[in-house]
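Hi Y.,

Following your request, here is the sequence exactly as I used it, all 254 residues.
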Amino acid sequence: MFFIFSKILAFLITPLIWVFALCIIAFFVKDRLRKKKLVIWAVCLLYVFSNSFIVDECMRAWEVTTPDLKPTQKYKYAVVLGGMIWYDARQDKPQFLRNADRLFQTLPLLGSKQIQKMIITGGSGSINHPEEKEAAILKKYLLKCGYADSTIIIENESKNTRENALFTRHLMDSLHIQDSVLFVTSAFHLRRAKGCFNKAGINKIVLYPTDRYSGPRKYEFDFLFVPDPGALHASTLLIHEIMGWFIYKMKGYC
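Below is the corresponding structure, written out as tokens. Let me know if you'd prefer a different format.
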């Protein structure tokens, strides 16, 4: 039930949906002044949430920053959170999203022996296709790429971040993992993910944020004033994540 509720909520808290709703209401409102105000609100919302500078500053305040990983730091396990692909059933292969930086930042560490094994956690995030389990799909892909089966461990039943934490805890207990692990997920997602894993009793983790959205401050004209669809996507992602963190806090998940 919580899984379905989260999908509905994700739709309702999307800025573009707000803009679209205001425009529809404005279309049916007969009072010209109210109609004008609704359209102005819609344009203002669209501009704010697609402004690169505003979104970049908000992302910078939210994303977790950690010191760079030193070459001398070595770990037996890295826990990598899913949410990085969609499955192309016709070609039977994963299509990688931006969050796949989680995986691509970890693979060089596996190659350089800074980590020995990788735990990928993530099942199906789809209501319509629960059989498409992400971790299993990724392992199949990595085996085709030549990675050894012994270096890739999967947990492929979890549907959200809380279940990532709970099911990974069970997996780690079964493997008798006691040492610190490298904890890999997106910088914007790290607050909620860390809270969930700590709540599940996984406290020996070294944070490794990836796919950072915020960059160096820029004061260029287009960055400051010109609307950007990429910024609209980032602001939507940020709103979803902050709302997710808030709900998880209220429910005691993190």
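The domain at 75-210 is CATH 3.40.50.620 (Rossmann fold).

Thanks again,
Q.
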